Amino acid sequence: MNSRLAIVTGGGGFIGSHLVKLLVKSGQPVRVIERPGARVGHLPQGVEIVFADIRDRGALIGAFQKEAEVYHLAANPNLWVRDRREFDLVNYRGTIHVLDAALEAGASRVLHTSTESILTRANTTGPIDENVQISLADAVGPYCRSKLRAEQYAFSLAAQGKPVVVANPTMPVGPGDRGLSPPTRLILDFAQGRLPAAIHCTLNLIDVRDLALGLVRVFQRGIPGKRYLLGHENLTLDELFGILSRLTGVPKPRFHVPYAVALAYAWLSERRADWLGGEPPRGTVTGVRLARRIMHFDVRGCQQELGLEPRPIEESLRDSLDWLRSEA
């Protein structure tokens, strides 16, 4: 049994809550750092909760401690936010605040959770693995730029000999997504028959519960300075809708939207959300631009190194749908 305190930023979120449950189940004491006002009632009993805004370096004073094991997940995972500056403040500067505060407090190791969406490049023709070389010029939109800059900062600390490791999850699916991240929103929209048309693209999906285990494995076995790509099945959007159709009885979209039309719709949808507020846009410019790139990932090397064997995605999608029905 590991008696060291595990500190999880963003522990109330979709991935974070599954990670917290896994750590608690292993017998490890856990402290969650969440933004003020975040929902935490679904977390296991006995978990210590600290409310702090990672945009404020001073708010993190005393949140970390010597020899703690720190998992940094807190971020804005959406591809649109009304004030685009939030991506930089939360995802990039917030990461600097968390990593610096944790290391200054004497944390034994820190895991930074990045994303697969920053690993794409224009004109890529084959599967992407963890060794891909990327630059800010490759990043699509303010979300991806903020996450790439955060990852670069984590790697800079590792290059200085700091105990910092990096994991890049692909798209998580499964039960418990209370914030409706983009993949879960897509599943919900399909189940409710709100997707009359689709665009051609490829996605890589992994069960959120297997992803949580992958994060623990990266923390335990990861080499600082190396990227660990945590994903599973590559599916075209049409293949994903085929599985969802079998599970729900809802027919697949009959029409495919040309890229230019999808981009124009996303731009108008974002402008409407910018001006009127309320519901987030039905489509995002960043999402459409990413869809045009290769999002096919080769995760075999990382899975083998970590001993990770994720469950079939159809099982994950079924569990996600069952959870969404239970929450309706």
Walkthrough of the structure:
By secondary structure, this protein is an alpha/beta fold. It has a domain at 6-179 and 205-233 and 297-312: NAD(P)-binding Rossmann-like Domain (Rossmann fold, 3-Layer(aba) Sandwich), CATH 3.40.50. The protein is 41% helix and 15% strand. It is built from ten helices and twelve strands. The strands form three sheets. Strands 3-2-1-4-5-6-10 form a seven-stranded parallel sheet, with helices on both faces. The protein has a three-stranded mixed sheet with strand order 7-9-11. The longest helix is centred in the first third of the chain and has 20 residues, at 85-104. The mean pLDDT is 94.
Helix-strand makeup class: alpha/beta
User: Strand order, biggest sheet?
Assistant: 3-2-1-4-5-6-10
Q: Main sheet, how many strands, which sense, barrel?
A: 7 strands, parallel
The level-1 CATH class of the domain at 6-179 and 205-233 and 297-312:
Alpha Beta
The average pLDDT is: 94
**Rg of Cα set:** 19 Å
**CATH superfamily of the domain at 6-179 and 205-233 and 297-312, called what?**
NAD(P)-binding Rossmann-like Domain
Question: Which range does the strand content fall in?
Answer: 5-15%
Total helical segments: 10
CATH architecture of the domain at 6-179 and 205-233 and 297-312: 3-Layer(aba) Sandwich
First-to-last CA distance = 38 Å
Count the beta strands.
12
Percentage of residues in helical conformation: 40-55%
CATH domain topology of the domain at 6-179 and 205-233 and 297-312: Rossmann fold
Could you state the order of secondary-structure elements as H and E? EHEEEHEHEEHEEHEEHEHHHH
What is the global morphology? Answer: globular
The residue ranges in which pLDDT falls below 50 over 5 or more consecutive positions are none
